[in-house]
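Request: How about a record?
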Amino acid sequence: MLNNKTIAVVVPAYNEETQIGIVIDTMPAFVDRIIIVNDFSKDKTFEIVCDYIKRENGNSDKTISIPYIEPPIETIFNKADVVLFEMRREEVSKYPPHEIFNDKDTDRIVLINNKKNARVGGAIKIGYKWCRDHGIDCTSVMAGDAQMDPDELESICLPVVEDDIDYVKGNRLWHGASRIIVPKKRFFGNSVLSAMTKVASGFWRISDTQTGYTSISLRALNKLSLYSIYNNYGVPNDILIKLNIAHCTIREIPIKPVYNVGEQSKMKIGKVIPTVSWLLVKGFYKRIFSKYLINDFHPIFVFYSLSVLSLLSSIYFLVYIIIGLCHQAVSSGTYFGFVLSLILCILLFSFGMWFDMIDNERLQK
């Protein structure tokens, strides 16, 4: 525990037989629960975790009891809470199929087995669900490949525990040696996706959006539809968008980039960037529509919407210009319409971003 707050760490693990033992052995003592989600591994990850469970679990002298949250007793005032509890009980089918291997109140290591490969995002949201259902105050994520320094976990958790921040993420790019330590392809891909995520998520002062070293509060877990979190490597980007829609606060903490500790990267940059880029485009429009039209109308929605209409108008004039050039007949009005539409698109989008920055400044602590 930290400051009398319960701490859990979700560890997504896929074929990590050489690394998972390092993660467990170096886990700080203040962590109350280690939630290992074995993502249908083909190697001996399951067997190795089971060995640790036999050695470490069930020691009531070292582990506090954390039972499931009991269903609320219905009164005339809490009908909404009862309905929400039932909704969450019924939403189990929306998660990737999985089974909990062990789940005693005093088990420090909890093993959850996915019945098919759900990828990193699918594993994380299953771990998040366990922590939400057990009322864990602060839930962190550490990869099963030992690429995250356990000595930095406390600094990742403390803003949630002490300062009431909803979401804390590490930032490897603030480290002076990041350009040397981080592989060049990853550094480039991270920079591109970070720039796009700023626009899509509304958190304009963040960077290193692809880091998975994070902590989240119980309040934030209760606000999010966990089952809808993206399954693959775009999960940190998707979570940021969902957090912004839910008006959750965020903070970045400097961490060290860690590579070459025996991990084997399963990420293919050439596939990840296009896939995550499309995820961000969809997430951007969902955020603007949900947050600034449905939940609470704001001029940001107008500016962004008009910028899209202006872009479509400029594309329309551009097509006419291309067709006209083929026939050597383009009117000056067509050129004027194209230039005017393009300028309006840029101006309206810029005003939208400006208002977006101002509105979301309060969420970045």
